[in-house]
What does this fold into?
Amino acid sequence: MDPLGQRGEWANWAGDQRCRPARVLAPRSRAELAEQVAAAAAAGERLSVTGSGHSFTEAAMTDATMLRLDALRGVLDADRESGLVRVGAGTVLAALNQELEGLGLALENLGDIDAQTVAGAISTGTHGTGARFGNISARVEGVEMVLADGSVRDLSAADDPDLLRAARIGIGALGAISAVTLRCLPAFTLRRVDSAHKLADVLDRFGELAAANDHFELFTFPYSDRALVLERNRTEEPPRPKGRAVAFLNDVVLENWALEALAAAGKAMPRAIPALARFAGLVATGGRNQDASHRIFVNRRDVRFTEMEYAVPRADGPTAVRRVIEWVRSNRYPVFFPIEVRVAAGDDADLSAAHERDTTYIAVHQYRRMKWRPYFEAVESIMNDYDGRPHWGKRHFQTAATLAPRYPRWDAFQRARDELDPSRAFTNEYAECVLGR
Ligand SMILES: Cc1cc2nc3c(=O)[nH]c(=O)nc-3n(C[C@H](O)[C@H](O)[C@H](O)COP(=O)(O)OP(=O)(O)OC[C@H]3O[C@@H](n4cnc5c(N)ncnc54)[C@H](O)[C@@H]3O)c2cc1C
It folds into this structure.
């Protein structure tokens, strides 16, 4: 398949970030990857590895040489005893989940979707929710990386703890990851209960609710006083998936089609947005389900939107959310999409948004054909007050200068970068902006 389409153009999932790579390389094996990288870098080409293109930022974009590692996929090695699973970097999470299920294993936590590649997901710090659980990259025990000179480095926690802390979330700027070793868990069942509540009550009890559930999450619409609360907890009971019709109604019609219809209406009639959003807040009233963990974590997202997400210290989450809502309402800003609030445990990756602090993630979305910049700028300035760290794959306006003071191990990451990619062959425009030269 031609990844660039007929006009030689690459587009991200949202369709609002586009680039024209000078050429695309799609090696069929690790050896071919090493050969192609070495030749391109020796010719002075800049390289950018692309996963599934699900970032909202320019993280994977390039006008130079684009690398696609779709062929490096599948489980390469699995030890059921320890849960350690080595997997090709280009494996899509959905396929990995299926393979793991066959092995009686599962990923500890997942985000909202499973369309990302393993390397793409970890490289931007992709996360799910759960006060006691870290980002996906927190479960990475090893990274195999092809460097610009074509050499292959096998970074492990035992032998290269510092380099691994950098490589677990490297924003594509260290080398081409060819394989990842993940620590998985025995397969488990989750029970999901969705319920609607008064937003003020949920925010007042935020810390308590986050602590009481394995995986706690809330959605609210900026003009609604209601919150949809998702509580997912492990259970020893067997999976009891909903009938297909019910799942279709909730997941596809309610979560996606209704959103599309309302978002489109909101675009045509910006003045109706507050009323539409109140309506959507009432519609999202919930349900329950019990199934294999990966089927409970993941939802379909059919409506295209753009997104910003910030990580703030856990305790600051509710106040920051209140301030975002206050800004939208006082400016009567036309936004129909929900605010999503999740939590994660701190971890030790150098560039993790949850680095060494228990975190609240606050995500704001905008329908892709509507104006997002003033809203996102206002949200960012609120998040700056809480030492907020942006998701590397979601829109923000920060630069290396504003980001460096927010990451205690910034210099350690730069030392790893100097060691792994001294010529900056893997530094695309985005990496240059957020990491510097
Ligand atoms: C609908 C939707 C839902 C989402 N839900 C969530 C969510 O719940 N939680 C969350 O945290 N994020 C979420 N995201 C963001 C998404 O998880 C990240 O942007 C993720 O990085 C995308 O993975 P990808 O495979 O598409 O990688 P890309 O976007 O293609 O690339 C991301 C980065 O990874 C690098 N990269 C990719 N492959 C390699 C490799 N082999 N070696 C080195 N570097 C590499 C790229 O250079 C780039 O810097 C969502 C995005 C969308 C569109």
The longest helix spans residues 244-268. The chain has 14 helices and 20 strands. The mean pLDDT is 93. Residues 346 and 357 are 4 Å apart (CA to CA).
